[in-house]
Amino acid sequence: MKTMILFGSTYGYTQECATKLTKDLGGEVLLVNAKDKIPSLEDYDTILIGGSIYMGQIQKKIKEYCISNEEVLKNKNLGFFVSSGIPENFDTNIKNAFPESLLKSALSIENFGGELRTEKMKLSHKLLTAMMKKATAKENKPPTEPLPENIAKMAKTILQMVVPTCNTVTP
């Protein structure tokens, strides 16, 4: 199984998640940042794609890539992930991020949670984050947190569904 993990990351959390996913999958896995040159899909059986969600949207390059390669992607083993600190918005975020036809054929769709790395943020994101934290606290909602168990869950699902199992017969 040759796998490519394509990700978009704004402040590094999603990149860390994609790196962890690479390690959990093992085997031949290519990790590709959407900011870099993306290799041809021909050589890969499994494609996992994800990015971080800001203001309800995934990185533009990720969304455009999925749309422009939709027909080729339909013929691959697919998985999608987002890094979103607001779990109740997961369904909406996924539907906004990826074409519906690709989501229907996905083997795994996960939310890896989030981390607010304010020290790396631009001023506008810091201000939005402060407002979001205030609103979340007012509504007694839990703060943004990483969901590493969902990374492991995605890896396990992909490995179970894609990697052929060997049935051994013992005499």
Q: How would you summarize the topology of this molecule?
A:
Layout: E1 2-8, H1 13-25, E2 28-33, E3 46-52, H2 60-68, H3 70-73, E4 77-83, H4 90-97, H5 100-104, E5 106-111, H6 123-138, H7 148-162
Helix pairs in contact: 1-7
Please characterize this protein's 3D structure.
This protein is an alpha/beta fold and 171 residues long. The chain has a single domain (2-114, 146-162), classed as Flavodoxin domain (Rossmann fold, 3-Layer(aba) Sandwich), CATH 3.40.50. The chain has helices at 13-25, 60-68, 70-73, 90-97, 100-104, 123-138, 148-162; strands spanning 2-8, 28-33, 46-52, 77-83, 106-111. Strands 2-1-3-4-5 form a 5-stranded parallel beta sheet, with helices on both faces. The longest helix has 16 residues, at 123-138.
* CATH architecture classification name: 3-Layer(aba) Sandwich
DSSP strand count: 5
Radius of gyration: 17 Å
The CATH class is Alpha Beta
- Distance N to C terminus: 30 Å
* Estimated helix fraction: 40-55%
